[in-house]
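Justification of resources, computational component.

The compute hours requested in this renewal are based largely on the per-chain cost of generating structure records like the one below. Each record pairs the submitted sequence with a full structure-token output. That output is archived, and it is also reused by downstream analysis tasks.
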Amino acid sequence: MSALPRPGGAAGKTRVCPHCKSVVLESLSVCPNCRHHLRFGVEAARRQEEAIRALAIEGQVAHPQGEEPCEYSIVVTVCDSKGQQIARKLVAVGSLQGGERCSVALEVEVLPPAVRERDEPPPLAVVPERPEAPVAATGRRLPDGTILQPPGLGPRR
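The structure output for this chain reads:
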């Protein structure tokens, strides 16, 4: 399942989980499929903990008693706000014998907006540059701006 590209940001970017090879959101710290850790960071973990459970559906499919085995397919379809199909995935197939049940749970989590990374913060204090001092004809300037004078050419007292 993949998300539509969105203008102006990293929201919706995906990557492949190195553990289970599922396509997951790049911003997640834990894979929703295999539940392995994808990144170790306070901000990523905090954001995923604040996820809102937007949809949760649970149900059971039961085979009618005393009949021949029946088959089932579980399909998930995702559409955007215009009704355009974004993804359709066959999740599982199987069969039920008389008296058997199969339970299905669907969850949709919505993550809070990511905190945008700002440019470098302004410095706490601005230190003015040292004004250029003229180098005396006989002196020598060090990289830190200090001028060395030969003995006897220092200031007179």
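DSSP finds one helix and eight strands in the chain. Helices lie at 42-49.
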